[in-house]
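Appendix B. One record, verbatim.
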Amino acid sequence: MAKFKLLQIVAISATFTLVGCANTDVTDEGAGNISTDPIKEVVAPVEVEEVEQAAMADADVVDTMAEEMSELSLPEVNVIYFDFDKSTIRSEFRAVLDLHAEYLSANENANVILEGHADERGTREYNLALGERRAAAVASYLKLRGVSTAQFELVSFGEEKPVALGSTSEDYAKNRRVEFKYQ
């Protein structure tokens, strides 16, 4: 959503810049004649360079935002996994969480839903509470990294939305997770 708004702002800025550079002066040769030949327009080279530099800077910002969003949309960085019956963040996922915290801190309009999940072992109520504890652990980490609490929402699905339907230890490990869902 933040990427789309940024693209809109860039497009509007570029439009105003180009409209502002259009030549609508009346020529000396005939009253009422409007010059439509861009070659005959008198534009200072510095102005053209400034417009091109501004457009390139805007494009760089858009590219940077697109790169950040594409990194955060990869499945391997949108899921944090947990050990059995634990809500403690494993050290291997701190770099991923730092990436999310950095993005959210830099983009105050970005919002994310933290979805907590559990495997099928345990009661339904216990797994809902466990999923909530896992989402809360991720939220606490993000808060410690400077992310506003207004930017995220916690939801627990417990065992209700497994990504792996089997009953092996690998399947259970894939279901013990918190997913980042950007809005």
